[in-house]
Amino acid sequence: MKYEFTEDELKQIEVIKARYPEARPATLPVLWIAQNKFGHVEPDVQKLVARTLGLPEAHVHGVAEFYTQYYKKEQGKFVLDVCTCLSCQICGGYDILHYLEDKLGIKHGETTKDKMFTIQQVECLGACGYAPMMQITNGVYVNHLTREKVDKVIHGLKNGEMPEFEPMEMRKVKPQEN
Ligand code: FES
């Protein structure tokens, strides 16, 4: 497949480039533009980004490889990022990961045959207080996961319902009396 940006996208990229003294800092936002357009940034898309920004392919490749948020190959409709970093690990992150793998019949890094789900094992999602955590397609956070909650989320997604983040109740602190 031949990957190209449209005239409008190229104009948008020029605006981004103009914010910086050189092209390198534009790598992240332009990779996002590419991923939003093509659904992934596989090597040929990375080459397009490098060409467009006038940067070495190795640089763009290095950036894309570093972040799990950039998809290096075609993914399922929903990408399930399960955190197994320390806090989530202590709170059962691996149990959630393996339960999800068994439920969907794939291992992390794989996509279901119907192209509905991809599982990724990821590092800290920056919400350790809500462990164990999962993120759906670089967007919605699902917190305090249990096997039952995983069942509910998967059932919902299959029926077009995106789960909502459920924040902890704010601790009620009695105001100090003067
Ligand atoms: S360790 Fe899982 S969100 Fe930080």
Would you give an account of this structure?
The chain is an alpha+beta fold and 178 residues long. The chain is 41% helix and 10% strand. The protein has helices spanning 7-17, 27-38, 43-53, 57-66, 86-90, 93-104, 147-158; strands at residues 78-83, 117-122, 134-136, 140-142. Strands 2-1-3-4 form a 4-stranded mixed β-sheet, with helices on one face. β3 (134-136) and β4 (140-142) form a beta hairpin. The mean pLDDT is 93. The structure holds FE2/S2 (inorganic) cluster. FE2/S2 (inorganic) cluster binds next to α5. FE2/S2 (inorganic) cluster binds at residues 83, 85-88, 124-125, 127-128, 131, 133.
Topology:
Elements: H1 7-17, H2 27-38, H3 43-53, H4 57-66, E1 78-83, H5 86-90, H6 93-104, E2 117-122, E3 134-136, E4 140-142, H7 147-158
The structure holds FE2/S2 (inorganic) cluster.
Descriptors:
single chain, binds FE2/S2 (inorganic) cluster, 7 helices, alpha+beta, 10% strand
